[in-house]
Amino acid sequence: MGYLYIILAAITFSTMEIAGKVIADVINPFQLNFLRFLIGGLILLPPTIKVLKNKGIKLNRKDFGYFIITGLLCVVISMSFFQLAIVYTKASTVAIIFSTNPVFTIPFAYFILKEDLKKSTIFSLVLSLIGIVCILNPFQASQGGDVKGIILCVIAALTFSIYSVIGKMKSSRYGSIVMNCMTFLVGDIIMLILIGISKLSIFKNAVSNSSFRILSDIPVFQGITHSNIFIIIYLGVVVTGLGYLFYFLAMDNTSASTASIVFFIKPALAPILALILLGESMPANTIIGVLFILAGSLMTFTFTEKKNGIEDKVKIND
């Protein structure tokens, strides 16, 4: 059953950038980010309440302080950069680069959680970075928009990795579903405050004539029509709500490292779906970059599985 959840999560996550790209020109990326996580957080709320009740947990000020940090990292920073990246470059490129986040999680875990950092981990990180450079293609000068989108996506992947590490600090207390649900909802409250600030005259005047004008007067519901509302609902319910739920269920039925196969399937599946649904082509440098990223991710997965196997044997012997 665990592998069925992995397949379902991989398919839903692989459509995330494609759905976002379809409405990128008509819906403000920050507005879409807010709506997506509002819907996704509400989808996860019933199982979250159930988990909190079963564990006998009553959330206090420290808990909400922690969720402010995770909400900022995940929803406000990482996913905002992610949505902006979709505006500036191909959906397939964003999907490929964002899938490197499990590789970046390991060095952050070394610095923040003081976890061991092996040579194989460093090598897998180098392979992934080479893959990103291949996709970036710095020798091709005509990629202005793509370069901006790629850089934004790298920032999104890096900050999501930090969120994953920070989340690991208290994952045993809350569980994955509670942590992500509260992160989504608290992050969305912060997003709503920032949207309110974007409507202030003093702020609008400050950014109206700059490259940051996309931050000005961010709508909440304006621009939603009968032609795009179903895509917004799809992103909120299926991708963010059910997608994360499938991913958590995959972890519960297998292991965290096995469930991370989702991020290895996505770089291969997302470009195929983007080709079929959006007509996006994959140049040779992108294909080469994907191969490097897949190799780096596979090495990370193999190392993690081997490490978990050794730990399990030690526990049995003890």
From TrEMBL:
GO CC terms of this entry: membrane
Which segments of the protein form a coiled coil according to its record?
A: none
Taxonomy, superkingdom: Bacteria
InterPro entries linked: AA-Vitamin_Transporters, EamA_dom, EmrE-like
Instruction: Supply the Gene3D superfamilies for this chain.
Output: 1.10.3730.20
Pfam families (UniProt xref)? EamA (PF00892)
Listed transmembrane segments: 34-52, 64-88, 94-113, 120-141, 147-165, 177-197, 229-249, 261-278, 284-303
Membrane topology note: Multi-pass membrane protein
Annotated compartments? Membrane
Q: Which UniProt keywords apply?
A: Membrane, Transmembrane, Transmembrane helix
Tell me which residues make up the EamA domain: 1-136, 148-301
Q: Which PANTHER family does the record associate with it? A: EAMA DOMAIN-CONTAINING PROTEIN, INNER MEMBRANE TRANSPORTER
Provide the family line: Belongs to the EamA transporter family.
Name under which the protein is recorded = EamA domain-containing protein
